[in-house]
Structure formats: structure tokens, C-alpha cells
Amino acid sequence: MANDLNFELNLSHEELVKRTSKECLIPKEMLKADAPEYEALAQGDKQALKHLVKAAKAMDEVFMIQDNPDNLAFKAFLEEETAKGNEDAKMTLALFNAQIGMNAVDSEANKIFLAKNHGELAGKGFYPVDLTKEEFHKILIKMLNEGKIQEVKDILNQRSMVVREGDILKGIDYTEYFAKQFDYIADELEAAAEVSTNEDFNKYLKLQAIALCENNPKNDAYADKKWAELQDTPLEFTISREQYADELTGTVVENEELKALLDKNGIEPISKDSLGIRVGIVNKEGTEKLLEIKKYMPVLAENMPYKEEYEQNISQDNDEKQTMVDVDIVTLRGDEGTYRGGITLAQNLPNNDKPSLKIGGGRRNVYHRQIRISTSPEAKERRQKRLDATLAKDFHKYYNQEADHWFTIGHENVHSLGPKSGTEALGKYKNIIEENKADMGSLALLDVLVDLGMYSEEEKKQIIVTYAADNFLKAKPTLSQAHRVRTVMQTKYFLENNAISLNSDGLLEIDMDKMVPTAQKMLAEIVRVQLSKDFASGEKYVLDNFVWTDEMEIISKKLKEIDKSLNGTLVTPLADKLAQE
After folding, report:
1. pLDDT tens for each residue of 511-521
2. Do 381 and 368 sit in the same domain of this protein?
3. What angle do CA 552, 461, 412 make, to 5 degrees?
4. C-alpha separations of 471 from 245, 305, 393, 483 in Å
5. Does residue 86 fall inside a structural domain?
6. Residues 6 or more apart from 216 whose CB is under 8 A from it?
7. Tens digit of pLDDT for each residue in 404-437?
8. Overall number of domains in the chain
9. In Å, what is the CA distance from 263 to each residue of 132, 152, 246?
10. What is the spatial distance between Cα 107 and Cα 382, in angstroms, rounded to a whole number?
11. Same domain (yes/no): 349, 386
12. What's the whole-model pTM score?
């Protein structure tokens, strides 16, 4: 299906029919157009929400350019072909809109390329598409030897887009590169701040608008600091900046000559931020439950391994620098809304590389209610089929979907614990190791939380069983999938420490007494790797544990038989309605 834009659909008609079917492409519905949560808002907040939804929609274009420079042209091609009645283009467009881009990975770790000859880019759209890792390193070495220190800093920071300039590279700050889109978003934030009812929220929106319009990291710091202080606001608005996509920047620590030059000149390479937006309505009841754990954060910090060797974000005298909200989601756009085999249940931001943490800012946990809550009969049936096929019957009584939420609360809070800085040296393994730390901390600190009265012994068992049962995957992931790689590492670790096992029927059994001690052991190893600030140590730890075992293969085959889902798509009726008003 050649065309003048040089695009050709990559998936066959049969594959497209399968991947867009109801059993493979699962809808996740956010707030309905007549949601009571929306109707309960003050009129000013309803008006503000319209502006925030429009701002969020504009971030899609920014993200798509960051993700792949051909995304926008391919989307336009698909829309044109769909208008002509091309059914294959229509189905491809449905997949494109679900994953917000032409390339993705599904829940079975298959790489999905929607256009022929447009494969995965290590540097995504952040770097020139023809830039190889070897040339990248060579150019940076040349620039550093020529004294272009600031120019290299501009390239190796989280907020730049990199272009060729003759035989060298140039980093352009994203406020300049995306000036048109950022100006529009800023205008919508300013408009929202004029009508929203919450003064603190309005101050944040105005600070965020300024940060979008000026090439000044301090403005981001001020906006992030204010955002992390928000606790009692009716609305939620976040511009997220996370680094899981960029696989090129982190490679610089693998080149010994280049790393030595970077160290000599005091340059810390930081992977690029993919930008997204979350818009929601704060759920008061859910938030009150989250805040129960806040008072325990200093105690949890004291129970982290090797705590005397590093500074943490949480300590005995600054535990107030952690806010938490449960949010009913109106829309997720840009990097937030990329449904690529899964979508996040919660976030703990800002990340440690962000300047707000250097000026005394805190962190904030936001939980996504619509993503985690699956109450439909179909969802319940799928869960029961999974349990029957994979978990020994004696443990079914402990499986509790709400316990997955409790585990996630622990995971997000542990992101605020452990080493506060220095992990950039772990390069491409940094995110895998950090996500692994968060998971293991959530389990390792369970006994502490039981002693403090946060959880009962019964709830502890529910968290352990629900975690272990859900930790098996349908397929071995790729190393670029940080969240899933850490799952394989953990399962392998618990298997070899006899905390979990499969019985003769191929069903999971769990040694309740070994789970927390095993998690504590792995957590200590992870923190030690982070403290090493050594790429080779990080690589060895990941590769030693990233092993797809026979037990995982047995469970994966069962999961594939009972669960045909490959991806999902967000349905946002309230956001769609507000965007048209």
C-alpha cells in the first residue's frame, strides 16, 4: 500500500482484525460525561477543567514528536486513508491512538511496528534518527576535547531535543523547540487559574505556565515544588516528566574514555524526559486512606538498609515533604496516556534528577482510581480464571484486588526512600534497579507496618499472595521494559530462595514466612548496587537476575490460554465532552 508520504501499513489485515478485537484491545474508561464527581464540583472548577483538558490534548503532539519524528505524518496519513474508506488504515489508526505512536510493545512483549521500515529508535525523537551509539560517543568526545563543555551539558540533560549542527550536535531546550505547543498549554493553564476555586492550585498553574515559556530550569523547580505541596485541592493537574523511553543518553557511561571526560568536567548525563499530562478530580475518601501511611514515613526511612550511607528524601524532620492524593481520572495524554501493554497505576514525582528537590521541594504520590478499579463481570471472570489456572487453591482466600493497591502505595512511597542521588551512573539499568527497589521495599517493610498498626496480619498475607500471584508475566519482556524486567528478576529471586514454588500441578505455592525476609535480602542488595554508582555492578546485578525460568514459562503458557488481551485503549467521555465546549 505505497503512497506519496512513503508510508506502508506493516500489519496484515488478519493481524489488525485480531489486535483491534474486544478480547485483544481492552477499553479502560475514565470518568463518564455525567460523572457525579464532576457534577459535585463548583462551577469555577468545572470551567477550569475545560481549559486543563484542552491543555492536555495539546501535549499529545509534543509527546509524539519526542517519541518518533514520523509520528505526526503517519497519523495524518492514517486519517486521510481512513477518510477514503480504507478499513486497514482505520484499524491501524485505532492502535496508533491507543498507544499514541507508531511503535509499541504489547503485553506479550511483542514489538508492534505499525508502518513498514519505521522501526524502533534508541534515541526516540530526542536525537537525530541516523545517530548511532558509536557516532554519538565519538561526537561527544570530540566536543569535550575541543572545550565545548556547556554545549555537551545542553545535550546530556533531561529537557533538550538534540539536532545536528555541522559535524557536532546541539541541544535545544524544549521550551524553545516546542514553543508553539507550550505557549498554547500555558495560555490554557492561565485561563484555568482565573476560574479555579483553590488558591494554591491556581498559584501552581501560574508557576507551571511560566515554566513552559522560559528556558530556565529554576522555573520548573518552583512549579514542581508548589505541585508537591498540593494536598487539599478539588482538581489534579500534572505535567509528568519521566525517562523510561530514552535508551541512548544512558549509554555514555558505557564508554570509558567518554565517561572519564564527563567526570573530569563535572557533567552528569541525565536521560531525556518524555512529557505527559494527567487531569483529574481528587477523590477525598480515597485520599484520606492514603494519608494514613504518611505519619509512618520517617519510621520506614529508618528501616531502609545502609541508611547511614546516604541522604533520603524522607527523614525524621522533613516527613511533611510528601503529599498523597487519590484521583478520579478525566484524561491522560502524551506520555501519561500511552497504553503500550499496560498503563501506570500511580506515580511518585518529581524524580531525583529534578531541580526542585535541590531547593527543598518534596514529592507527591498520585494514584489512578480508574486504572486500578476493575469491577465489571468480565474483569472478575478473567481474574478468577487466572487464579484457577495459576494459584494453588489454599491461597485463593488471600487474593484481594484491593491488596494490589496497598502494595502499590508501598511501592510509590519507597521511591522516596533509599539513595537520593548518584544512580545516573547505572546508565540504562538505573530505572530497572529503581523500580526493583520500590517493589522490594514495599514487601520488605510490611512487618514494620504491621507492628505500627497500618496493616493486620491478614492484610499482610493478602498483600503477599496478591503480589506473588500477579507477578508472573505472559512473556519474557525486553530489557527496555523496566517495569517488567524487574518482575522477572523478583520472581527468579523468590524461586531460588524457596519463597515461592510450583507444585506438581504447575500451580503457585507461597511460603508466607520466607517472603518478607527474601524481599529484605533483595532490597539490601539493590541499595548496595545503587550506592556503588558503578555501571558494571548494575549491569551484572540485572543480568544475573533477569532469567526466564521453567516455572515462568509454565505459567506464561497458561496465561496466554486464558487471557487474549494484548493492549488497551483509554476511553475518556468526560474529557471528550469538555474539549468540545
Report:
1. 999 999 999 99
2. no
3. 75
4. 23, 24, 17, 11
5. no
6. none
7. 999 999 999 999 899 978 788 899 899 999 999 9
8. 2
9. 22, 12, 21
10. 15
11. no
12. 0.89
